Amino acid sequence: MNSWMAPALRINTAHTTDKMISMRVLTGSSYGTYPKAPDRPTTVDGSTGGVRMRDAVGNVSSVLVLGGASEIATETVRRLIAQRCRTVTLAVRSPAKVADLLEEYRSAGATATAIAFDGAATATHADVIGRAFGDAGDIDVVLSAFGQLGSQAELDDDPTAAAELVNVNFAGQVSALTACAAEMRRQGHGTIVVISSVAGERVRKDNAVYGATKAGLDGFAQALGDRLVGPGVDVVIVRPGFVHTAMTEGLTPAPFSTTPDRVADDIVEGIRRKSAIVWSPAILRWLFTVMRHLPRPVWRIVSNR
Questions:
Q1: What backbone torsions phi and psi does residue 92 show, to the nearest 5 degrees?
Q2: Fewer beta carbons within 10 angstroms: which end of the chain, N or C?
Q3: Residues 6+ apart with CB under 8 A from 296
Q4: CATH numbers and ranges of domains, the chain
Q5: Which alpha helices (DSSP H) does the chain contain, by range?
């Protein structure tokens, strides 16, 4: 779904949700939405059932980052803390490696912890994410930023490595996001931010495996957002272009390349506006409106960089 469609589709969602639920009762169909989340009592400070939610002016109070060492995620958390986010949980493969980040966040006034999380270990995701929500009490935002880039030239000669990348970037994301969606539906609110990529808008031959995983992730995230309209959980899909990070060091930058701090600015604004899709930079939206429809012979030429 393009971001310009989102406002029209979200008008009167409360009334639309009730109708969808009524249709399910009449038809017996479960297509298109989760069951309506149960009502929860709201306290004077704006929280439900005594747990934390966004503060009185709508600032994010708590965040769980899957792939907490990501440069984009790090810049995003810094901005959220500057806006009074006070609980940060980093889910990473090696918690010891983010000790400096935790200290930085604590010095800025946040309660920060790290938990062990392996994007490839899908059998562990429900338990790890369930405990993260239980320990935090309530989580306003989940930022899913884990994944691998890989070298297409190397993957061409290593089918096992190609499959492993797909397992992390797509199967791992589907597993983790499904677990997060279940937890947020139970708490009755929240925002899930998914780091996708313009690489999934039209997959190039030079990053065929990576681009294919982003295409799959983007499609899943869009459908997940549609399913979560009724329970009151927002899904924000972020589509950055080429980002100058340690992961892309040594690669030739694509046109309209950007930096982690600029992407983070766009993410924070997307959370505030509850945007369905965030292009970073924004011009890529219009560029790929054209690029995705180019004839394949033309696409092979323009994408060959």
A1: -140, 165
A2: C
A3: none
A4: 48-302 (3.40.50.720)
A5: 6-9, 13-27, 71-82, 99-107, 125-136, 152-155, 159-166, 173-187, 208-227, 260-273, 283-291, 296-302
Q: Give the length of the chain.
A: 305
Sheet containing 111-116: which strands, arranged edge to edge?
111-116, 87-92, 62-66, 141-144, 190-195, 233-240, 277-280
Catalytic residues: 210
Terminal CA-CA length for the chain: 28
28 three-state secondary structure: coil
* DSSP code for 131: H
> Which of 77, 91, 85, 93 has the alpha carbon at shortest distance from 131?
91
What is the number of other CB atoms lying within 10 angstroms of the CB of residue 112?
A: 22
Annotate 222-264 with DSSP letters as a single string: HHHHHHTTTTTEEEEEEEE-SB-STTTTTSPPPTT-B-HHHHH
SS3 label, residue 155: helix
Both tokens of 5, joined, read: 């469609």
CB 16 within 8 A of CB 225: no
φ and ψ at residue 275, rounded to 5 degrees: -70, 140
Q: Which residues contact 110 (CB under 8 A, 6 or more apart)?
A: 81, 85, 86, 87, 88
What does the radius of gyration of the chain's CA atoms come to, in whole angstroms? 19
Please report the pLDDT score of residue 201 as a whole number: 94
Q: Are 27 and 106 in contact, with CB atoms under 8 Å apart?
A: no
Candidates 86, 91, 92; CA nearest to 105 is 86
DSSP 276: S
